[in-house]
């Protein structure tokens, strides 16, 4: 009886340089805060685009879905 065994290949760890990791973390935080702002805070008088509600109306359903108060 022949016993054929495949070589065992272990998982190779991914090594990410700390400078790349910091850039990804900072970029992710900026994107997350921007999404949080536009979904949760931006409305009318506090809008970064003036006193209109274009952004607010665009994300209105997402705002309610995430439980943010509205109006």
What would a concise description of this structure say?
This protein has 71 residues and is an all-alpha fold. The protein is 49% helix and 0% strand.
In percent, how much strand structure appears in the residues?
Answer: under 5%
Query: Rg, please?
Result: 24 Å
Following the backbone from N to C, one meets helices and strands in this order, namely: HHH
Structural class: mainly alpha
Which geometry do the CA atoms define?
A: elongated
Main sheet record: none
Q: Helix count, per DSSP?
A: 3
Mean pLDDT: 82
Q: Determine the fraction of residues in helical runs and give it as a percent range.
A: 40-55%
- Taking pLDDT < 50 over at least 5 consecutive residues as the criterion, the unreliable ranges are none
Assembly type: single chain
How far apart are the termini?
Answer: 77 Å
Q: Would you report the number of β strands?
A: 0
Give an overview of the whole structure.
Pfam families: CbtB. The chain crosses the membrane at residues 21-39. Keywords: Membrane, Transmembrane, Transmembrane helix. The protein is an all-alpha fold and 71 residues long. It has a domain at 18-66. The chain is built from three helices and no strands. The longest helix has 24 residues, at 18-41. The mean pLDDT is 82.
